[in-house]
Each structure stands twice: as C-alpha cells, then as structure tokens.
C-alpha cells in the first residue's frame, strides 16, 4: 500500500489558467450588468431631461434669483464688469 504522489509539477500554471478564465467571465458579466442597469438608465433620464429643458426659462429664473454677478435681477449689467 503506497500513497500516491501529489501532483505538484505545473500546479500553479493549471490553477492560474482556470482562475483567469473565471475572472474574465465575472468581469464581462459585471460590465454588461452595470451597463444595462445603470448606464442605459442614466442615458434615458438625461435624454428625457434635455428633451423638456428650456434654457431661456432657466436663465430667467436664475437671473431673477440673483445668481449672476454680471446680470442683475432687473436685467442691467452688474458692477465690476
């Protein structure tokens, strides 16, 4: 009754190859899942925002709120310009 010798020659190479394939599959799966769950949803919401966005109305709202130093709420040019 003799014990079988453990396979040590090439052990690291065989396990590394297997683990690289598994890591690549996980990376591809994660990338595809992230793209379709976050990126596509964000693209859709940005497109919806820009479809309804009125630049001039937003500028007038910010001007009336006094957010600009160069344009006063009355529409005149601010001081320092």
UniProtKB/TrEMBL annotation:
Domain of life per record: Eukaryota
Gene3D superfamilies (alphabetical): Mitochondrial cytochrome c oxidase subunit VIc/VIIs (4.10.93.10)
GO cellular component, one term: mitochondrial inner membrane
InterPro entries from the UniProt entry: Cytochrome_c_oxidase_VIc, Cytochrome_c_oxidase_VIc/VIIs, Cytochrome_c_oxidase_VIc_sf
Entry's localization field: Mitochondrion inner membrane
Identification of the protein by name: Mitochondrial cytochrome c oxidase subunit VIc/VIIs domain-containing protein
Transmembrane segments: 20-38
This protein's UniProt keywords: Membrane, Mitochondrion, Mitochondrion inner membrane, Transmembrane, Transmembrane helix
Main subcellular location of this protein, as a coarse class: mitochondrion
Species: Patella caerulea
Family that this chain belongs to: Belongs to the cytochrome c oxidase subunit 6c family.
Pathway membership, UniProt: Energy metabolism; oxidative phosphorylation
Pfam families: COX6C
Ranges in coiled-coil conformation: none
């Amino acid at each position: 009754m003799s014990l079988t010798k453990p396979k040590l020659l090439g052990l690291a190479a065989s396990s590394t190859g297997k683990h690289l394939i598994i890591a690549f599959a996980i990376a591809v799966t994660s990338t595809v899942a992230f793209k379709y769950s976050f990126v596509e949803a964000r693209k859709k919401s940005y497109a919806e925002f820009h479809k309804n966005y009125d630049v001039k109305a937003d500028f007038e709202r910010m001007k009336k709120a006094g957010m600009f130093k160069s344009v006063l709420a009355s529409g005149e040019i601010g001081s320092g310009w």
